[in-house]
Amino acid sequence: MTGTTGSTGPSEATGGRTFPYKLVATDLDGTLLRSDETVSARTREALAAVTAAGAAHIVVTGRAVPWTRHILDDLGYRGLAVCGQGAQVYDAGEHRLLTSVTLDRQLAGLALAKIEAEVGPLLLAASRDGLEGEVLVGPGYRVQDGPLPVVPIRDAADLWSAPLNKVYVQHPTLSDDELAAVATEVAGGLVGVTMAGAGIVELLPLGLSKATGLSLAARRLGAKAVDTIAFGDMPNDIPMFAWAAHSVAMANAHADLKAVADEVTATNEDDGIAVVLERLLPRS
Questions:
Q1: Is the dihedral of CA 105, 106, 110, 116 positive or negative?
Q2: Distance (Å, whole) CA 250 – CA 264
């Protein structure tokens, strides 16, 4: 698999062209990755065939670079990746950030105050900006099992001591959907609100989404929305789906994403990405 930049591959399935898109955009968790954070041989082979046909594969993930880099390195990925819900465009081959958008901490603090006034105290974590940005976890915040590193803190005030890409919020009793809905209603004019997975409701810079980051990266690759097929599984993929010419939700996707997808494929465990790419690739 590769993420090589500067593809001049096909954008139509006619006129001797071999693949209908220039750009294949894939989310990571619940989409490209299986539950054990690996990519199957079948999916790797399908992506390799797509890039051999002239398209570029680009990872578009809610994870910030420090939580993404090891996966890209393991895959031998050398192109651009969109990380941090669109906040970061990362050159994996050169291991450097090309763009990085930070959250206005004053606005984020005001947003949190408005949300807490509505639902009571929140459990907090935050992702610091930069190639080595740490994820700080406040008291009571529920961290998912897995290898991703976090830094526990005792005082939630420490979250604000350095530039951030995002703030994570949880509530003791509200569901993710309920919390996201309340946050959007009372603080949506101050910050962006998205849900990226189970227990992962995020506050972002206003106007930021996977679509904004993907559009920046696509421009560098010489591709446009009309050239793009996108795969995802959670509501944070909705803007990317709206931007891309064709959108594919995984069978395990959130109902809100399935509702706006052009099609639904198999689950991430059952090579849903490969199922679609194999269908679109020219037959030998």
A1: positive
A2: 6
